[in-house]
Amino acid sequence: MSRRLLGVALTAALAATLTGCGSAGSGSSDNTLEIWIRQPPESASAKTAKKLADAFTKASGVQTKVVALFDDFETKLNQQAAQKQLPDIVINDTAQLGTMQTQGWLREVDKAALAGGDQLADRAWTAAQGSDGKYYGAPFSGQAFAMIVRKDWREKVGMEPPQTWEDLAKLATAFTENDPDGNGQKDTSGFVAPAGTKRGYASWYASSFIYANGSDFLKANGPGKYVPTANDPKFVEAVQYLQDQFCKTKTVNPGAVSNDTTVTHEVFEKGQGGIYVVGPYVLARFVKGIGTDKIEVLPVPKGPSGGPGTLGEGENVYMMAGSTMEDAQKKFAEFAISPEGQRIGMNKDADGAIVRLPVNTTVDMAAERQDPRWKVFQDSYAHAVYAPPVPSWTPIRQDSADSINAVWADCAADVKTKMDELNAKLTQELQSQKAS
């Protein structure tokens, strides 16, 4: 048996044990609802999560405990599952739904029985849907990717906002070559990119360009079935465009092929690069750290062969299996998706938003946030692309990241050849997930 299939078998056995043993030793054993969120401890976002939980306690009388974790979040969840001590609630990425659902960790969500569920955007509900067509999370936050750009640099080099990929490449070159910060040194880059392989970041970053060029990693081929499209000409064109930035024009920040988002945020904040394709969750941080008059938000330009498109993501509230507090789980999910819960999570224009774009359609974002740059992200959400509901997106993203990172790190690598190889890997992965 292959290591991957062995892992699936062991995971299935673990899931059966977990769901069969109830909540013995779970976080809810003391009648306190334990809520895990993937945020750095003591961060502004973690504090917003605590405000949300405290407001829920005030409204419901249910006591809560918020656990904020960032590094190795999924590993720690696996450890808790092995000990039959899963938290009651997990607020986590939409792309993690398949992985958690196939391990038997998630309770199914009845849309019709969830108070306020009919107020949520249809696009957000698609990201709470498993490969079997059922729902396993309550949509909590949406986000679409756009470009945060150093406006002061762009004006210094005398260029207009880019409308095409060619324009974007020229702007990146100007940021790299023309001393936009005026310090007399050639020490700036055009793009900053989290292009490492950790948690699949290279794939995560590249996806906005892939979607903007009218391509995708997978194509639906019947109910619950997919074929990979990593060697599609539009896909190859997008990866080649980015390889050219790394290797030909050298407009990407040094060390990017090893960086994750934590490092990349700092690179941008320190003025080492001027174009960052990223979600809205860092906007308030950069406004505070760099200066509101120095940054702007621009949509990712359409690619030469497709678009518009950009990465769509978000978070769901997951009600974990094995809890003895099922009624409290449901009440928390309903509070989180309510207008009050959404407004608390949005945190207005301040740093620490855990609701990036509200998924409750009755919430007026413009009334909550005065910064007009949020509207660019909201407009981009209309053509945002979520990860498809395969049983597990994680290995697909990781395989893609490994291959894409390899052609950025090795300038002699042929993109088409490597994407052919990636397509073969993804075919095998889909077969192992019985989604081929």
From TrEMBL:
Q: Which family does it belong to?
A: Belongs to the bacterial solute-binding protein 1 family.
Recorded GO molecular functions are:
maltose binding
Name the record gives this protein: Multiple sugar transport system substrate-binding protein
Q: Keywords in alphabetical order, please.
A: Signal, Sugar transport, Transport
Question: Transport: is it a keyword of this entry?
Answer: yes
Q: Which CDD domains match?
A: PBP2_TMBP_like
**Signal sequence, start to end:** 1-24
Say which species the protein is native to: Nonomuraea jiangxiensis
Alphabetical GO CC annotations of the entry are: ATP-binding cassette (ABC) transporter complex, substrate-binding subunit-containing
Question: Which SUPFAM superfamilies does the record cross-reference, listed alphabetically?
Answer: Periplasmic binding protein-like II (SSF53850)
